[in-house]
Specification:
By secondary structure, chain A is mostly beta strands. Chain A has strands at 3-7, 10-13, 19-26, 32-38, 44-52, 55-58, 65-70, 73-78, 87-94, 104-105, 109-113. In chain A, a hairpin with a 2-residue loop joins strand 5 and strand 6 (55-58). Chain B is mainly β. Chain B contains no helices and eleven strands. Chain B has strands spanning 4-7, 10-14, 19-25, 32-37, 43-49, 55-58, 61-65, 71-76, 85-92, 100-102, 106-111. The chains are: A mainly beta, B mainly beta. At the A-B interface, strand 4, strand 5, strand 9 and strand 10 of A face strand 5, strand 9 and strand 10 of B.
């Protein structure tokens, strides 16, 4: 069966420090991968999605970047964190192009920038 | 891009009562998803609707998509404390990459 791993579960980082959140998927090949952020009091915002290795699409201009070095690995990074980067980050994967298949989510990383 | 409005933003109901959450789109929905999120956790898939007029049920939760495919509702019958959480509707972008954008969520509390 397919599983998705996301870590760390919680993270407290000072302003200006770098960030690296990792997400890996098992049990599937060539998944579409997504990073979402859920800020306090706001909905789930799509940050990046990837349809293949090295292919990243950015939905919102921001202080963050994403990379996909391997088929089932998706990394969210920042060189210098801002206070506004605090939030709950969720990695997700899905299969196929369109077609109405569901997305599967990791357990999330709660990031607090202090 | 897809704009999804959810209502109400929050809801407090007494155990055993029925409730409905609505999700309205500014555009035709190609795929409408309902997810539930426990506080601080990942999302759990509930149901997915694609066809106008479609209705699906799982246990005490029923989701419907209207004929015009611009509005969906999630109905919980005889609510229980285990139903508490944040309910999110998500819509698939017509771009074909299964890019799902979400509404702002409805926070549900069920009082025993």
């Amino acid at each position: 069966s397919q599983t998705i791993h996301q870590w760390p579960a919680t993270l407290v980082q000072p302003v200006g420090s770098p960030l690296s959140l990792e997400c890996t998927v098992e049990g599937t090949s060539n998944p579409n991968l997504y990073w979402y952020r859920q800020a306090a009091g706001r909905g789930l915002q799509l940050l990046f999605y990837s349809v293949g290795i090295g292919q990243i699409s950015s939905e919102v201009p921001q202080n963050l970047s994403a990379s996909r070095p391997q088929d089932r690995q998706f990394i969210l990074s920042s060189k210098k964190l801002l206070l506004s980067d605090s939030g709950f980050y969720l990695c997700a994967w899905g299969v196929g192009l369109g077609g109405g298949t569901e997305a599967f989510f990791g357990q999330g990383t709660r990031l607090t920038v202090v | 891009s897809q704009e999804l409005e959810q209502s109400p933003q929050s809801l407090i109901v007494q155990e055993g009562k029925n409730l409905t959450i609505n999700c309205t789109s500014s555009k035709t929905l190609y795929g409408l998803y309902w997810y539930k999120q426990k506080y601080g956790e990942g999302l759990i898939f509930l149901m997915m609707l694609q066809k106008g007029g479609e209705e699906k049920s799982h246990e005490k939760i029923t989701a419907k998509l209207d004929e015009k495919k611009q509005q969906s509702s999630l109905h919980i019958t005889a609510s229980q404390p285990s139903h508490a959480g944040i309910y999110l509707c998500g819509a698939e972008d017509s771009g074909g990459y299964q890019k799902v954008t979400f509404g702002t969520g409805t926070k549900l509390q069920v009082i025993p």
